[in-house]
Amino acid sequence: MNERATFGAELRRRRRAAGISLTELAARTHYSKGYLSKVETGLSAPKPALASLCEAELGVDGVLTPLLPAEPPRRRTRPDVRPSGLPPATSSFTGRTTELRAIRAALETDGGVCVVSGMGGVGKTALAVRCAHRLESGFADGCLFIDLRGHESGEPTTVHDRLLRLLGVPADRIPADPDDRAALYRSRLRGRSLLLVLDNAINAAQVRPLLPAEPKCRVLITSRSRLSALDDAEHVSLDMLPLAAAVDLFTTVTGVPGSAAVTRVVQRCGRLPLAIRIAAARFRAHPAWDVAELERRLDDESARLGELDDGERTLAAAFQLSVRQLSAAEARLFGLLTVHPGTDVDIQTASALSALSLRETDRLLDRLHEAHLITQPEPDRYGFHDLLHAFAAEFVLTDAEDEMKAFSRLTAFAVRSAAHADKELTPHRFVPEITFDPGLPEPARLDDSEMAMSWFRTEWPGLVALCRKAGERGEHERCWQLAFFLRDFFFVAKLWDPWLETHRWARASAEAIGDTWALATTTANLGVAFVDRGDLDEASECYGEALALFRRIGDGHGESTALAHSGWADHYRGKHHDALRDLRQARAFYLRDGNRRNAAITGRGIALALTALGRSAEAAEMAIETLSVFDELRLDLDAAMALNCAGWAWYHAGRHDLAASAYRAAADRAEACGSSYETARAYLGLGNVAAAEGSAALAADLWGRADEIHPDLDRVMVGEARARLP
Q1: Least crowded by CB within 10 Å, which of 53, 76, 621, 688?
Q2: Domain housing 274
Q3: Where is the HTH cro/C1-type domain (predicted)?
Q4: Which pLDDT score is estimated for 77?
């Protein structure tokens, strides 16, 4: 058996023993299936690069290479050498299959230039080196690898000198003149088939003079910047590792099996390859540690960057290289973005933080995104990788006074924006006078309640985090104001937990500054959250406190509001006569005061109390009366609630036709304004009507629809849920 057949036969035997098909091996090595088949059958000669790749993929280091056939000496037609300066490929490389294919496809195009970009530590160089090792054998004149040292001087004329030396040009024949040096470089590449890997490029200007004019050459570039100015290049943006690949990387380096704890460790590392490798190195260096100990050390966000340091590599140092490329204005904004406690910001919020114009802020954000220092989850929003956020907060945000002023501007803008959205949501709500500095940006444009709801749905997690941070940092007025303007959104969305949290923080802030009105109002709104969730005892306690506070400062409007809220709670507790008394007293005040909205809302409560007292026809009449006010004031959600109230009254009166009509209208109104709660309530009511008329199948269908829209409506708070048959 000759050498060539021996290599192919051994490759086939090892491949089958590993359970790997020829198609799978082709995908892993990036050689064609046909070529591999010819190698296995002895029809094509194997190459050293193929032997190395197959050994790595099959886990049989040193087995196939000795079987390579001896190559006959070739007489070269040129005096220069065939360079191969690639660094060794890491044996613990995982994932990136999609990216490897994208790079290969990019290098096969006519332009043949591919830029791999990503944040520091994401594994750009490791990916480029692995890809280059797999492709090197396809280039007759080999491969050149140059580290452009993105953090140091990388002038093209210096790089030309290094490249010419690698191409075999004697030092005394390298011209001193930069243009002559560039010309010699291009001439030495003429007619060559060569892969050029340019690692750690700073910008497009640094790379352009190094691009060969020879069409048979290909260029693979890595950079922390996107190098979007290289118009003719294909761009591959590198993100964090998928979770499974991140776990595989840690287990490959450490030898420990995958587990829930390992998964948490790589998540603490942000699925960033460099961070995972550093964590794995520290784990191996401490035999007394288990994975739980490593997880514990990485759990503290404020100390995590310090833990990701193995003595030779630090994640902070990798990030610092990227920051060094920023201008002073870019670095300042990068640091100030961490002042916001949320996960992402829009351009207006960033403008408020920086006190810069929207245009200038947009330009700086674009530069930070270009440098892979911030992410762009949506066209008008920017966010952080967790570890970069921690780095920027610790190492970039260094001006305490600038930070303090930025936070003050941020909270003021957040209150202004929330007030703007709340006005679209509830245009007739009483709002205290709040002043803002003239330099704040204008809030985002919101044309109607639907846009306001959409804005709140996007922003509320960040506003809640900001509300808490405002209280912690002594911005007490902004804390209670944020809670105040979030209340109606939380009511519509039924987000009870953040509603309760924000109002507890707001109460503490109102007490801290001695603002009795804010304390009374916040306490009453906290009671609304409790009663809406069905916690009636807590709600009554809040209403009692708020009522006393309003009476202390002589606020008749606030007193009536607290009295009305208390009436609602009494109704749900079964004290319908007490509820009717307090609600009527509050409604009389609102009517004298000309507050038609509050009078109508209180009238809706009166209708519910009347229904519970068996006065259903009177209740239905009151509900319809409130509906006309809500329609006139264009309060669509309140109108849907009034229709549900009328349907409930007519159902108890035995007027099933009128009840069904009211519930159908309520469902349409509630769906139109995005209230799943009131929509589900309407379908529950329709199901009850169907059941009362003996249509069991229709009732079950309507109840099922209600459960899909908003499951588990509280039986204490929703009469329709109590009336539903088991």
Answers
A1: 76
A2: 243-315
A3: 11-64
A4: 43
